[in-house]
Amino acid sequence: MYKNMKQKNEVFITKNKSNYLIFKTKFICWLTNLTRKWYFNVARFNIITRIIEKIFRLIHNPDKRNDDFIETIITYDKNSKIHINTSSFLEWQIFFRGYYELEIVNSIKKYLVRGGTFVDVGVNVGIHSIIASKIAGKVIAIEPVEDILDRFQKNCKLNKINNVFIFKLAASDKEETTLFYPPKEKAVDNGVGSLYKGHTPDNTVQEIKVKTKTLDDILRDEKRVDYIKIDTEGHDGRIIMGSLNIIKKHHPFIVFEFVEPCWKLSGVTLEMVKKELELIGYSFKRIGKRLDNCNILCIPSDKNRKIA
Question: Which domains does the chain have, with CATH numbers?
Fold first, then answer.
């Protein structure tokens, strides 16, 4: 059974708990309603940010969130809403900070053409597609995991989004049926899945069969492709290799995640991807401040003037 509790425009959803835990949940939700409003305004002050992070971890530790997670609907990007389950680290960060990977959010807002086509490869629960849907005329969402896709569809319904087209499959550099490794329900981060079993400890993943297609195939009939976001836990390079015809045709902005240990599992290197895209006229810009991995924005030469 779930117990619903309303406060202003937010709905807090907790499982049957003691009065203390219900009070704690209410308090955390009230507190995060404040932190989401000003977190990124003070993020440039490293000392303040570190103190805030320590407080977050004290009141709702991300490493223990599977035992005491919170589900809630929160305001997202000013005038949207998103359903949050803090057992996912991605959603835990949105719950406290308001955004996950704000650099990608800002990139979408800056470079996605109004009325254009946005392609979200690895849509997850829709943290980027929700924002892009307010700018784009069409959003193409690609996600192979049914449970995650179901949550994304609920977020679309929550925001009355009607310009999203969903593909239940995994993008790749070839068409086939293969194994995919989403995390088990009680894994440390249940929002992360990969085509590579080695991307996370074996005892935290399960196996499912998925269909794969290239973006060249998926997007063949699209009249325009303006922005492609890729986040697939190490498979990003192979996806780009299977997208070169579409990229040559439409010259979209592309952002992808580079995590070297995950990319090694794919056999495609960052240098290989850069070489192919440079031949089409792309330049590259690292965005974000993370040291362990990074997001790379690929900029088509005919649109470099927008970077100034």
Answer: 2-97 (no CATH), 102-307 (3.40.50.150)
